[in-house]
């Protein structure tokens, strides 16, 4: 039976395997922040990642050592990428995790989001390593959003079916040693699903203060200058971008004290559809689609706007998670307009950082935009929002909670122990893992 050393359990440096289902480095800001926070705390981080670009299978970076999937060059890059998809029971991912954990002998496995959590659980149980599930989003509800707007593709029917995904999530909730969520509403949902409150920690999607761009001087802007709105994130229908475009069109067509323009930073499965919608509405330069821009390059663009918009539809998905962009807007001193999706609306109201509109209601969104036409009002809302980030909603606070959580789980150890170790010692790793796979839901 494989064993790990317990030096970290006595208060020393831990070895942590951070499982990420995409390529690394990544545009996913949270994955990099989490790894760096643990490394900065003196721990040794190993990031297990996909490898569609056929990069080096091992790379040492400041935030951790990256262990990438070995490419199968003989089948070509496109087929190799498809076979590296992070399916719940992927033998290729299970093998990669097992070989990495065997070499690293970690004290904790940290699984980023749902797709690879089952594999992390199975391999973690075999090696006797506790597993922490970093649940950055309500994955089943996000899949349901895609299906509800009819935007699922052929691949989604097999691997992103909302019913199957929900069953996998329930299995993971009951099998991991600890769960990290990004907002209180997510913790409440998990408790309702049967999770123990003491096994849940909140680590929000907050910004690093060191990366916050300098404040732009907006005090001298002309009262009749165009109002610049900005949206940062995936370009998808459930995120309310169609309503945002329609609100801009309403203000443009009905006239008002000043013109309104909107800049959208990001890409996504519905980008072409929404570009076409902007064209149908005759928005022209009033709606600028910039496509994907790396996060650090996007922040200065965002900072030059007047108002940040979080137009997400108030579905179960957005009622139980919080988008990074909310805190990015606030950190840049922008007032925020958000839909009434529960967590974002709660934070904006509590901090007085902006306006809340009725989800999926473009006319109510237009009215919220009009309430921020006044420069002084925007400045006041932006200032209190930035103060809330500096004092509370920042990564220094959340990183401290992350480190405390991972250290606690490592010192406590895995809650699932193996019986009949003599028999298990006679089994090799692949055999045991395949038995675990056959028991998956």
Tags for this entry?
single chain; 441 residues; alpha/beta; Rossmann fold; 2 domains; 8-stranded mixed β-sheet; 6-stranded parallel β-sheet; 14 strands; globular; disordered N terminus; disordered C terminus
Shape: globular
Structural class by secondary-structure content: alpha/beta
Oligomeric category = single chain
**Number of folding domains?**
2
CATH class of the largest domain: Alpha Beta
Q: Give the strand line-up of the largest sheet.
A: 3-4-2-1-5-6-7-8
CA(first)-CA(last) distance = 25 Å
- The tally of beta strands, per DSSP, is 14
Portion of residues in beta strands equals 15-25%
Approximate helicity band: 40-55%
CATH architecture of the largest domain: 3-Layer(aba) Sandwich
In CATH terms, what is the fold-level topology of the largest domain? Rossmann fold
Arithmetic mean of pLDDT:
88
In short:
The chain has 19 helices and 14 strands. It has 441 residues and is α/β, with parallel strands linked by helices. The strands form two sheets. It has an eight-stranded mixed β-sheet, with helices on both faces. Strands 11-10-9-12-13-14 form a six-stranded parallel β-sheet, sandwiched between helices.
Verbal overview:
The protein has 441 residues and is α/β, with parallel strands linked by helices. The chain folds into two domains: 242 residues, 3-Layer(aba) Sandwich (Rossmann fold); 183 residues, Glycogen Phosphorylase B (Rossmann fold, 3-Layer(aba) Sandwich), CATH 3.40.50.2000. It is built from 19 helices and 14 strands. The strands form two sheets. An eight-stranded mixed beta sheet has the order 3-4-2-1-5-6-7-8, sandwiched between helices. The protein is globular and about 65 Å long. The chain starts with 14 loop residues before the first strand and ends with a helix. 49% of the residues are buried.
């Amino acid at each position: 039976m494989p064993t790990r050393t317990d030096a970290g359990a006595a208060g020393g440096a831990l070895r942590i395997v951070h499982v990420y289902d995409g390529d690394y480095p990544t545009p996913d800001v949270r994955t990099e922040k989490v790894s760096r926070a643990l490394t900065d705390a003196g721990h040794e981080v190993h990031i297990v990642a996909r490898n569609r670009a056929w990069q080096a299978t091992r790379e040492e970076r400041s935030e951790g050592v990256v262990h990438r999937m070995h490419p199968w060059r003989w089948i070509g890059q496109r087929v190799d990428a498809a076979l590296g998809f992070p399916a719940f029971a992927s033998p290729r991912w299970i093998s990669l995790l097992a070989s990495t954990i065997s070499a690293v002998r970690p004290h904790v496995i940290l699984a980023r989001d749902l797709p690879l959590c089952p594999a992390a659980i199975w391999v973690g149980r075999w090696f006797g390593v506790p597993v922490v599930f970093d649940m950055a989003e309500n994955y089943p509800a996000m899949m349901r959003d895609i299906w509800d707007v009819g935007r699922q593709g052929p691949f989604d029917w097999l691997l992103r079916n909302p019913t199957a995904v929900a069953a996998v999530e329930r299995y993971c909730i009951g099998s991991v040693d600890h769960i990290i969520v990004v907002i209180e509403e997510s913790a409440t949902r998990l408790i309702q699903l049967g999770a123990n409150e003491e096994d849940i920690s909140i680590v929000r999607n907050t910004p690093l203060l060191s990366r916050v761009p300098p404040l732009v001087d907006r005090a001298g802007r002309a009262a009749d200058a165009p109002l610049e709105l900005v949206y940062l994130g995936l370009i998808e229908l459930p995120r309310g971008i169609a309503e945002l475009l329609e609100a801009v069109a309403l203000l443009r067509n009905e006239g008002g004290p000043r013109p309104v323009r909107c800049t959208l930073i990001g890409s996504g499965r519905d980008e072409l559809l929404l570009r076409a919608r902007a064209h149908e509405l005759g928005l022209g330069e009033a709606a600028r689609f910039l496509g994907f821009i790396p996060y650090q390059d996007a922040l200065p663009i965002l900072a030059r706007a007047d108002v940040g918009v979080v137009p997400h539809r108030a579905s179960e998905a957005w009622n139980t998670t919080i988008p990074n962009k909310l805190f990015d807007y606030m950190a840049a001193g922008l007032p925020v307009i958000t839909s009434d999706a529960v967590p974002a609306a709660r934070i904006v109201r509590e901090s007085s950082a902006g306006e809340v509109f009725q989800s999926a209601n473009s006319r109510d969104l237009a009215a919220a935009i009009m309430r921020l036409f006044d420069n002084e009002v925007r400045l006041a809302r932006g200032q209190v929002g930035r103060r809330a980030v500096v004092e509370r909603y920042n990564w220094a606070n959340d990183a401290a909670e992350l480190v405390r959580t991972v250290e606690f789980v490592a010192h406590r150890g895995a809650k699932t122990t193996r019986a009949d170790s003599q028999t298990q010692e006679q089994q090799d790793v692949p055999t045991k893992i395949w038995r675990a796979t056959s028991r998956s839901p």
